[in-house]
Amino acid sequence: MNILAVESSCDETAVAVVRDGRTVLSDAIASQIDMHTLYGGVVPEIASRKHLEAVCLMADQALSQAGISRGEIDAVACTYAPGLIGAVLVGVNFAKSVAWGLNVPLIPVHHIRGHIAANYITHPDLEPPFLCLCVSGGNTMIVNVRDYTDMALLGATRDDAAGECFDKVARVLGIGYPGGGPMDRLAAGGDPKKYPLPRSKVDGAPLDMSFSGLKTAALNLIHNAQQKGEELDLPSFAASFGQAVSDELVPRAVEAARMLGYGKVAAAGGVAANSRIRADLAAACAREGWQLYLPERKLCGDNGAMIGCQGYYEYLAGHQADLTLNGYAGREIGCNDWRAC
Predict the structure, then answer these.
(1) b or e along 313-331 (b: 16 or more beta carbons within 10 Å of the residue's beta carbon)?
(2) Is-contact 200 184, C-beta < 8 A?
(3) Is 91 left (phi over 0), alpha (psi -120 to 50) or beta?
(4) DSSP characters for 168-187?
(5) Which helix (H) or strand (E) holds 292?
(6) Please, is 85 exposed, middle or buried when counting C-beta atoms within 10 Å of its C-beta (0-12, 13-18, 19+)?
(7) Largest Cα span, the chain
(8) Beta-strand runs (E) in 129-245
(9) Which pLDDT score is estimated for 124?
């Protein structure tokens, strides 16, 4: 089964062709990073307009790379939530028009489910159930993946997403946008214990997280050094910040995995490419004797392949939409009814 998959939830316009859920025939991506770097973050209106400009070209490119014709497409999948609503709507409406024009099924895909599915591409042997730590610029979640389309949220951030904190700190340091990659590279060789930064706890919710205090403390540290004319040890600061983020994420993922007892842990999302987090997860899983699944770094960010992969399992579960499908800024990960949750 060949699925044409569309992803446009933030600042990448991505269209892929995926066969039978795990074979990626093509994955065309148009990035808007250069444009949004001028503003230090994603400008939603600009993102939406750039998706409009790129989506048809990416679709043609994906078909060309896959070496198949439009008539060989068996279904169309798209991210319908969550994300920047204007950006999401571009992908949804493009997918609806293609599905209508080709007279094939339309499959709505939750963006975070797509990130989880990136692991199936890297690890064809991976099957649910497993615990997944989902960490990106807009979302930070601990998810019980009971089956391909049966998922439950165990814990989440109460405020900022981990990736958003990396972006804001990197912007203040002036080292680039998005901030995850530059902060990760800067941390190489740094002392992760040099700068004390806070770790949070949420009363009554041990698996929930909060990153606003960490972000504020890091920004205050930078500003205080600037005001006093002191020079920060930037590699050690970046390493200390990355360690603080990892210390928020990994122990909670481990606690959740112990509760579930699956013996399998995965990570997903753009922040899952972070070296410190990957290393800490690997060490924790080795201590516990669990299997760890990490997507290739190129599949951690937004891409169409992950949507096509998850779309296949949504299709098998009977989750199809009609041409009234809408886009949504937010949606529970456990939602299997595209009409309302």
Answers:
(1) bbbeeebbbeeebbbbeeb
(2) no
(3) alpha
(4) HHHHHHT--SSSHHHHHHHH
(5) strand 291-293
(6) middle
(7) 66
(8) 130-135, 140-147, 150-156
(9) 95
Q: What is the pLDDT of residue 333?
A: 96
Burial 108-126 (b: 16+ CB within 10 A, else e): bbbbbbbbbbbbbbbbeeb
**Whole-prediction pTM:** 0.95
Encoding tokens for residue 147? Answer: 């089956």
Q: Give the containing element (helix H, strand E) for 99.
A: helix 85-102
pLDDT confidence of residue 39: 74
pLDDT at 31: 85
Integer Cα distance of 121 and 22 in angstroms? 5
Cα dihedral: 147, 273, 281, 141 (round 10): -50
Q: Half-sphere exposure of 108 toward its Cβ, with a 13 Å CA cutoff? A: 26
pLDDT one-digit tens code per residue, 131-158: 999 999 889 999 999 999 999 999 999 9
Q: How far apart are the first and last CA of the chain?
A: 29
Q: Could you tell me the two tokens for 208?
A: 């929930």
CA trace torsion 110, 111, 116, 118 (10° rounding): 120
Q: Taking the CA atoms of 140, 145, 151 and 154 in sequence, report the sign of the dihedral they define.
A: negative
Reduced to 3 states (helix: H, G, I; strand: E, B; else coil), residue 160 is coil
User: What is the reported pLDDT for 93?
Assistant: 98
Residue with tokens 């499908």: 325
User: Do β-strands 106-110 and 75-81 pair in parallel, antiparallel, or remain unpaired?
Assistant: parallel
| Positions in the chain whose pLDDT score sits under 70 | none
In the sheet that holds 130-135, the strands lie side by side as 150-156, 140-147, 130-135, 264-268, 291-293
Q: Quickly count: other Cβ atoms within 10 Å of residue 202's Cβ.
A: 14
**β-sheet bridge partners, residue 5:** 16, 77
pLDDT digit string (tens) for 235-281?
A: 999 999 999 999 999 999 999 999 999 999 999 999 999 999 999 99
